[in-house]
Design a protein that fits this description.
InterPro entries: C2_dom (IPR000008), C2_domain_sf (IPR035892), C2C_KIAA1228 (IPR037752), Ext_Synaptotagmin_C2A (IPR037733), Ext_Synaptotagmin_C2B (IPR037749), Extended_Synaptotagmin (IPR051634), SMP_LBD (IPR031468), Synaptotagmin_SMP (IPR039010)
Largest sheet: 8 strands, antiparallel
Organism: Aptenodytes forsteri
Family: Belongs to the extended synaptotagmin family.
Number of helices: 11
Radius of gyration: 29 Å
Membrane topology: Peripheral membrane protein; Multi-pass membrane protein
Low-confidence stretches: 476-581
Protein name: Extended synaptotagmin-2
Strand content: 35-45%
Shape: globular
Length: about 750
């Protein structure tokens, strides 16, 4: 079995190895010239901050696989996904002289999928106009600190913890943050720095049914209810629903809107948790491929939750296209009832995209002849965002992007104020009614705006575009060809086993034409803003996405995306795993002796099993394909009824069990079934795959039993690439060796 979408690229690793000393020089410059001044300016307490040593180490970054997209892409761009891992023994030492504080970093690990976009392709050398780099989702990041406690005692940093620091760093690596490197001067980089999202995903987080009861009473004798809530992720935007107390069939009826910058590759991730005073229990997860949502435009379905034994979730997902014309606006306003109310929030009818370039001739702050520390405060209705601070200049250059969801552009304004952070005073402001954009060509304005209450020639240069959010499809250029071969949104395990049929869509209830109440969206809008807002350097450090609760459910396992292990207190073996009982092994040994009967059995007396094993860093899952078995032992005169069951040790809970179908009356069954376990690459390399081939027999039949076992330690360098192999089955799984 080959995985043609991801290819190895050893030549690339050899190239990176050769370039590594020069990459290290670049990183050192970045630390000294960019990061150090930014940290010094961020807070008065940090004004004596400096790096005393920067050594990234000799171990170069590794590229485990490369995927090149050939479908669903514009003909003028090339999209590559690089599966990256960096395990480096670095030495980065820093000190804050004022507080005699020294700290540092001993080692760093980063694992994730980095997207590289080469665009636009041009007809002159070097053929590529520019390249953009970013992570599609938060990479797994582990930092081994020295002296972290000293650092966290410094005033201004005492609200931090290592988890929050990791999260802030990770967020800076993820969309919509990207590094753009121009290769040709004529390329209008402003175009690349003005990324317009591919679409907006409106998520109606409606209800769930039949969730697991996690809260117990009387020391576990009485099973109780759960207090469920959901965490929804698209890229680095995180939303959290309200908690519904003591309910296994909760109804949330909340609406969230998320920007989608990239697909293929971005997914909607949902995790449900049960709120607890100590540690929140996991209630299931779901991953939905956004390509499918874009194709369908509207999905209203019940989805079976993954990684748990029961529970399903009702979602309504709308894919909204960004239209550069206002012809559909009235229709959109009617559909979200924005034409009736006078509110400034609710569901959005448009998206405001803003590129803040620079300002000129700003007045000096309160002191004459002193340069201000300017920052820009942008607001639409109740939503406000802040730019970074530029220090000691009256000609600041920001080059930052902002996006705002707009309820009704006919009535709302964009308010812009330039402030001096040092003296907390205004340096000028202006107000732009969004109705002016509706009259502009392509709903876009790119110009210098004059500031009021400012100097005589004070201007601010911005590019502003409005895009109407429409559920209807935009006429595509022939460059955009769609491939119909996309995976169905997060099929449940059972559906995957039987056949690739999608879930039956929910028939709309009689009152389905009533829009979902818009009130919950106000809450989610606030959260969206904080998720989008770049961390203002002058603010006291905070959880970057400002979740309304503590990070109790999120900080576990440093965002390694293995939700099934967030809540593991002590894995309890499930009753059905009789394989763990020594009796089954003894019976098998006895049967082997009967079969042997004086003759010497071959190399693999219990037969063999063929498996494909690989880890997908893009999906953060271990994927196991059970192909077939050969030469199994017969359990009765009619042969055996074999099936395969698997655990990823040490997790032997029922929810961690994977089973194939039963193959009747055969010693050479063919299964060809795919299974996955949600687990990160560093984590999976510490685990063991426990595979057992068992005889089904009838209910309570004495013919149930073990046909052979296999234990595969997964600490292999080749796991990202994957392999297919025949393995010998043994009585207890020990001494497995590949047959071919």
């Amino acid at each position: 079995v080959h995985f043609p979408d991801t290819e190895r690229a050893e030549w690339l690793n050899k190239t990176v190895k050769q370039m590594w000393p020069f990459i290290c020089q670049f990183i050192e410059k970045l630390f000294r010239e960019t990061i150090e001044p930014a940290v010094r300016g961020a807070n008065n307490h940090l004004s004596t901050f400096s790096f005393t040593k920067i050594d990234i180490g000799h171990q170069p970054l590794r590229i485990n696989g490369v995927k090149v997209y050939t479908e669903n892409v514009d003909k003028r761009q090339i999209i590559l996904d690089l599966q990256i891992s960096f395990v480096g023994n670095c030495e980065i030492d820093l000190e804050i002289k004022r507080y005699f504080c020294r700290a540092g970093v001993k080692s760093i690990q980063i694992h994730g999928t980095m997207r590289v976009i080469l665009e636009p392709l041009i007809g002159d050398m070097p053929l590529i106009g520019a390249l953009s780099l970013f992570f599609l989702r938060k990479p797994l990041l582990e930092i081994n600190w020295t002296g972290l406690t000293n650092l966290l005692d410094v005033p201004g940093l005492n609200g931090l913890s290592d988890t929050i620091i990791l999260d802030i760093i990770s967020n800076y690596l993820v969309l919509p943050n990207r590094i753009t490197v121009p290769l040709v001067s004529e390329v209008q980089i402003a175009q690349l720095r003005f990324p317009i999202p591919k679409g907006v995903l409106r998520i109606h987080f409606i209800e769930a049914q039949d969730l697991e009861g996690k809260d117990t009473y009387l020391k576990g004798i009485v099973k109780g209810k759960s207090d469920p809530y959901g965490i929804i992720r698209v890229g680095n935007q995180i939303f959290q629903s309200k908690v519904i107390k003591e309910n296994l069939n909760p109804k949330w009826n909340e609406v969230y809107e998320a920007l989608v910058y990239e697909h293929p590759g971005q997914e909607l991730e949902i995790e449900l948790f049960d709120e607890d005073p100590d540690k929140d229990d996991f209630l299931g997860s779901l991953m939905i491929d956004l390509i499918e949502v874009e194709k369908e435009r509207l999905l209203d379905e019940w989805f079976t939750l993954d990684e748990v034994s029961k529970g399903k979730l009702h979602l309504k997902l709308e894919w909204l296209t960004l239209m550069p014309t206002a012809e559909n606006l009235d229709k959109v306003l009617t559909s979200i009832r924005a034409d009736k109310d006078q509110a400034n929030d609710g569901l959005s009818s448009a998206l405001l995209i803003l590129y803040l370039d620079s300002a000129r001739n700003l007045p000096s702050g309160k002191k004459i002849n002193s340069n201000p520390n300017p920052l820009v405060l942008l607001s639409v209705g109740h939503k406000a965002q802040e730019s970074k601070i530029r220090y000691k200049t009256n000609e600041p250059v920001w080059e930052e992007n902002f996006t705002f969801f707009v309820h009704n552009p006919k009535r709302q304004d964009l308010e812009v104020e330039v402030r001096d952070e040092q003296h907390q005073c205004s340096l000028g402001n202006f107000k732009l009614p969004l109705s002016q954009l509706l009259e502009s060509e392509d709903l876009t304005m790119h110009q210098r705006f004059h500031l009021s209450n400012s100097g005589p020639n004070s201007t601010i240069n911005m590019k502003i575009a409005l895009r109407v959010l429409s559920l209807e499809k935009q006429a595509r250029s022939p460059d955009h060809q769609h491939s119909a071969q996309v995976k169905r949104p997060s099929l449940s395990k059972d559906a995957r086993k039987s056949s690739f049929k999608p879930h039956v869509p929910l028939s709309p209830p009689p009152d389905s034409n009533k829009p979902v109440p818009a009130s919950p969206a106000t809450d989610s809008d606030k959260k969206t803003d904080t998720a989008e807002k770049s961390q203002p350097p002058n603010a006291s450090p905070q959880w970057p996405t400002d979740l309304s609760r503590s990070s109790s459910s999120l900080h576990a396992s440093n965002f390694s995306y293995s939700p099934s292990h967030l809540s593991v207190k002590e894995p309890t073996p499930s009753i059905a795993s009789d394989i763990s009982l020594p009796i089954a092994t003894q019976e098998l040994r006895q049967r082997l002796r009967q079969l042997e009967n004086g003759t010497t059995l071959g190399q693999s007396p219990l037969g063999q099993i063929q498996l494909t094993i690989r880890h997908s860093s893009q999906r953060n899952k271990l994927i196991v394909v059970v192909h077939s078995c050969r030469n199994l032992i017969a359990f009765s005169e009619e042969g055996s009824d074999p099936y395969v069951r698997m655990y990823l040790l040490p997790d032997k809970r029922r929810s961690g069990r994977r089973k194939t179908h039963v193959s009747k009356k055969t010693l050479n069954p063919v299964f060809d079934q795919i299974f996955d376990f949600s687990v990160s690459l560093p984590e999976v390399q510490r685990r063991t795959l426990d595979v057992a081939v068992k005889n089904s027999g009838g209910f309570l039949s004495k013919d149930k039993g073990l046909l052979g076992k296999l234990l595969i330690p997964l600490a292999s360098e080749e796991l990202a690439k994957g392999w297919t192999q025949w393995y010998d089955l043994t009585e207890d799984g020990t001494r497995p060796h590949g047959a071919s």
